[in-house]
Amino acid sequence: MAVLEVVGLAKRYADSVVFSGVDLRVDRGEFVAVIGESGVGKSTLLNCIAALDRIDAGSVRIDGIDIASLDEAGQAHLRRARLGFVFQAFHVLPHLNVGHNVGLPLLLQRRPDPTRVTAVLAAVGLDGFAERLPQTLSGGQLQRVAIARALVHRPPLLLADEPTGNLDPATAERVLTVLHEQVRHEGAACVLVTHSAAAAARADRVLTLTPSGIRS
Amino acid sequence: MLTWWRQLSWPEWRHHPWRTGAAFLAVLLGVALAFSVHLINQSALGEFSAAVRSINGEPDFELRSASGGFDEALYARVARHPMVAIASPVVEIDAFAFDSQGRRITLRLLGIDALVAGSLAPALLPRPAPGQDRFALLDPASVFLNGQAAQRLAANGTAQTIRVQTPRGEAQLHIGGGVTAAGPPLAVIDIAGAQATFGWLGRLNRIDVRLAPGADRAALLRDLGLPAGVRVATPDEAAQRVSNVSRAYRVNLTVLALVALFTGAFLVFSILSLSVAQRQPQLALLGVLGLSARERLALVLIEAALLGAAGSAVGLGLGTALAALALRLLGGDLGGGYFAGVAPPLQFSAAAAAVYGMLGIAAAVVGAWVPARVAERLPPALGLKGLGSSAPAPSTRALGPALLALGVALTLLPPVGGIPLAAYGSVACLLLGGIACVPVVIALVLRAVRPPVDPLALLAVERARRQRHSATVAVAGVVASLSLAVALTVMVGSFRGSVLAWLDTVLPADLYVRAGAGGPSSEPATLPAELVARAATVPGVARVESQRVTQISLDPARPAIALIARTLDDPAARLPLTGSLLPLPAGATAAYVSEAIVDLYGAAPGAQLKLPLPDGSEAAVFVRGVWRDYARQHGAIVLASNDYRRLTGDDRSTDIALWLRAGSDPQAVREPLRRLAGELGFDGALLEFAEPGAIRTTSLRIFDRSFAVTYWLQAVAIGIGLFGIGASFSAQVLARRKEFGLLAHLGFTRAQVLGIVGAECAVWTAAGALLGLLLGLAVSVVLVKVVNPQSFHWTMDLAVPWGRLALLCAAVLVAGTLTGWLAARGAASRQLALSVKEDW
Fold first, then answer.
1. Given B385, B832, B836, which is nearest A87 (Cβ)?
2. Which phi and psi (to 5°) does residue A215 adopt?
3. Facing residue for A95 by CB, picked from B455, B463, B744
């Protein structure tokens, strides 16, 4: 079964069409990159998939669940259990230490698991960093914290929005390697929005988003 | 720098108009209130002084009696002296007159020689009304009224006569015309008429003197050899005295009004702190591009100064309008009673406006200092990541305790010129120190709290642990306004309770009687001795005690004080003493002084005091104890009746206290006493009766009226504080939109996000309320134990109205929580997801 099924997705802001007729299927374990011009709506596409933005046409199913059939709380629970996010600007909470930042999704599901947190941190190369505060980390380290947080609860689908946009090429390469390895290791699917050719080259499929749809 | 402000700060202000507007409004209201109170007081004082000058005219000096007047033979000696160009005899009487509804109005009567007085005091020259004989100004039964008197007593000129109270009963005087003298109700009458009508035959109480050209005042006075009881005074002495005695009241009121500005400064602090925190990436970018740390500091301070200037400018206009309205509606008296009867026009002062304008700017800049320092110290690299610290430097951790210690130390200093400046400084230090201690206190409390497992609690607790400075910003406005409100509530409550307890002690009898003739500041009229003796025979009366009150002067530069002779079989029970009584040395005469006498004349227990007696002699007395007196701010001394009679030979009484038999009706005793007075040749209609309950009610009404402006200013300060809570919580929520966006991505429901914010607002507001309550109690101790005694020379017992304080704290808690929750509702919207995008 596909982890993600998008059929005929359309999005409008007022009289302006962002995109329409978007069809996308991502299977478990697949790494899909979505590229396109700036402003074409790549981040909007991810928000629509994650039920963070209203869709104007079409449907989105995650693990077989139609997100339109859920109310706001149901959509939040869906994100909690089945989605992980990595952002361009890391978005690590400055008042929580690294361990708490990473373990937050597990706490949300009321199944705290310090062992799992430690293991994930080690997997991304941040062994022993649990008590550190975000202010003491580099950009690359912060992005690895974000990746660890995105995967700690073993979501079937990971959405990454320009995860290397704020990193230098060498660090970006290392972060992409970690992301790629961990997605594979956890058996998750990943939809990666990017401008980076290097990031896109690592994907199993590269799709191009246009206002009239998505194409290979 | 202004170019940078225009390009960097102005767009920020336009983008957040409500936040900017809140800071602007806080400064505006603070300046408006403070300036309006200042204008009202200054206009009233200026008008009063001008009125006094117009009444007193322009002599070189005055000869005045200490009390009771002097032989008019002195006038002949003065007038004939070659060094004297003009000598004008005056009889000044404070009396009561009756308006058209029969209400008693205080009326100052000046008996003058119209042919002489006009040269020195043109405003007193009687101007006969149209149709009156031109010699009417010499008619001993005609009075000439000033504007206020004509308005209140003569129905604006339509009445032909007025009724006045004299020691011998009511007198009807013909209205002959008017005088141009300004000020409270005043009547001018021929001096012979004044002497005859009011029992001053052969006596004067003032002679105005203008020296001949080249004459030496000292030589003249040596030549004249003034008799005992006559002193030399300057013409503006009365105005100066009112200025001096009202100064503490005016300063206290102005300080209260500045409380609003003080609270406004905290609001500026909250808002600018949040603004700097939110603009971290922009400020960091400017740092990277070349804006130095000092320039970042200056930018934030300029923002504050411009906000302060704009708020001050509008505030001065609003304050002027408020003052004009208040003067029209209330006159010049804000409740202290110092300027009653004055109806002043607004006297605008550009210098005062400049001072208060600068105060507004200073308040804004002071409020912006800490956020400006944060902007200065921002590390650009971390700031670009949004990870820069918004906390002040660690070296400021000692600031809070140091300010608290300084606040305590300042309470030990004496007043400066009768104004408790050090105590006011102590209040400011306690407030600032208490707020500066918030981060340290939070750290101490949370040290014992482990990170919770619940995700909502974890976010709230760890945020509090790691971002204590944000907490300070959030609670600062709550603490400032609530602590001042608590302090004023406790102070007023303590004062009121002490007044009630004092009344219970000084009013033990069931009924009090006195002669109603004479005005409030003149020598009280005496009662017939036989009336006192026979009052006990009136049916229903169980016991009678008499009291004699007279005015004496211990220092010509100060107002007269009351000398009270009364029954003192047990001073400890009869007087509201503030300490224990000293043993009386053998042969000494005991005196019991009020607290004001101790403060103003240094007559502490154990001191010997020389009392000038009404007959001109002096008596040495031993100060045995101090008692609390809320009725006479200038001071009072009590002697036992038998001691007074022994020293003076005066056995007259001015007041009688009656204890009634059980079941007797105080009303039923009045008529028999009036009839008894009539039988003894005293007009029974002049007797004034008062029951303790009525005196208590009147006293409390006067008390509440005198604090009405305080309550109003307190309400405004609370209003600014609550507005500040709303503004700072709203701004904090807006500043955390990215955090809320992230939480939405992670799977927090909207209800959970609202729950976090609501709970944080409740906790921070509760913490602020608790700290505000504690600080407020500390400040109230300063107000009760230091400010009031130093300002008004009386003490009071501290009484904490816990119920009212609980309601106050609850109101603040509800307002803060509700405001934050409402702000969160707006922030936790569908568009939340967009806030995590880097380029939004």
1. B836
2. -140, 160
3. B463
